Amino acid sequence: MKQTKQKIKACLALLLTAGMLLNRQVSAGAIQNQIDRTGQKINDLKDAVDETDKNISVWQIQQQALEQEIAYRQDKISRLSAELDQTKADMSHTQAEIKKTQKALEASIKDSEQQYEQMKQRICLMYENSTMDILMYVLDAASFSEAQRRMDYFQAVMAYDRQKMEEYKAVTRTIKKEKSKLVSKKAKLDSLKATQTEQLGKIDNAVADLKQKLGDKISKIQASAALKEQYEQELERQKQYEKELERQKAEEDQKREEEIRKQEEELKRIREEEQKQRRREEEERQRKQQEQKQDSGQQGGGSGSGASGGSTGSSTGSSYAAGAGDLELLSTIIYCEAGNQSYEGQLAVGSVILNRVESSSFPNSISGVIYQSGQFSPVASGRFAHALAAGLGSQCLSAAQAVLNGSRNVDCLYFRVDNGLIDGTVIGNHVFY
What we know:
The protein has helices at residues 2-127, 131-139, 144-300, 326-338, 343-358, 366-370, 377-381, 383-390, 397-404, and strands at residues 415-417, 425-427, 430-432. By secondary structure, it is an all-alpha fold. The chain starts with a helix and ends with a strand.
């Protein structure tokens, strides 16, 4: 009766411990799911930061190109403006020259008209009287030289008038020709001014359009820079959150490991108690048989030899009888978790898998341990299934085979990426505990 009560108490203790372990496992699985989701968010944020960086780089190149184009066109505007100013100055000067020439032409025409009037008056004066009177005027001279002088005078007056008329005509023609040139030059300057003004207008419009595009690029760069800053802030927040989840997961794993050890110690104690009880019962049974034999010998006078039954203990070997596909599963999870680690690191990951298989608190098969919910991120993310289908586990086949053959370098049940928050055995980038 007493032994039955002890067994009941032990069973209840084991059930209580198993319940606690189940709760720990559920809690650890939930935290692992949060870690996986947070890791995905971190990867998405990193991708968003990278994509934003690429956009900013492209837009900055476009900004530089637009700034260079605007600078080139503004330089062209400056040169055209200077040319237009020179054209306007030339037009102003030409207009002044035209006015000046017009005044000279008007003065020349006026002088010609006055000379013409004076010549007419002289002619009238000379020819009012008859030719005979003029001849008499010449013949009445006191001497021949006087007569010659008078004749020369009349001829000189006539020649002067003709010369002056020709000179005035020549001056007038020259002035008119100069005016015509100036008017033609002004017309060309007017056309040049119109062309230059039109070119300036087109370039001004092009610059305005380029400035608008530049403003759009700058706005996009500024907006993307602000968005990148938000991504980076959120990325940092998620990283801190991931660290906190890793810390919580490590605490849960350590508590669960401690409870597992207590459960295994309790199971060991119970088995030892049962073995002791069985030995006591066996000894009592043998004692009673011996007494019965002695009583029977005394009664029958015979003697016999009794054989004592020996108990054989079985020691658990370190090798593992792998089933079909176990080697491939083990090598693939080692590849996913420690493919970029040293051989020792790969061996340690495989050791954790086999340690769990042998622990009563985990599934008792390699597939069960690997596919246990909330335990391995590559399984949850689908990377394990992809690696398994692609045969990538062959890269870690040597470490997996060694573990199955009994080579284990850690006796831990957990491992995580080493972030300095967890105490344990550090191998490569992982801490085992």
